[in-house]
Model the fold of this input.
Amino acid sequence: MRSYCIRPATPDDLGAARAVMLDTVYRDFGTGYVPHWHADIIDLAGAYLTPARHALLVAVDESDSAGTGKGEGTGTGAGTVVATAALDSRGPAHPPNPRWLVDRYPSGETAQLRRVYVRQDHRRHGLARALVRRLLEFAAADGGYRAVYLHTDPAVAGAEPFWRSLGKAVCDEREEPGGGQGIVHFEIPMT
Done:
């Protein structure tokens, strides 16, 4: 039986969290690392640990006692990082996103969910939903966020139905003239 712990990431977790994220962009997205899109993955501390209004959470498989050491486990020998989720105060950018969307979700007032990734062997255990719930609690406690936003690529298996179960699609670029980037943008209720 697997036992998971969801908690804020520590500096000791960053190598393992980065590995989960990079595995996801290579294996699930098929894009590989693209500096313009994924720079935060390389500087997780600067993107999520240092700024007060940002957060990086990890899910640790505590039943995996083999996950120890630098970059592989939690840094404590207590398990393996198997999922991540982050939040920052940056709204979507224009370009490439539609101008009206950027105006609706301005930086500073918008909590953007990012890097909600679960290793394939640990999916279907409620980890993504639990991570998102904790990030929504963080955003509400901050007091300065008025909306929670994210975008997803509907070509990634399971992503679109998952986000539709939690929030409302505010822009489906596939329905726009020319199809935009093919991305679906969501707003998630904070409470």
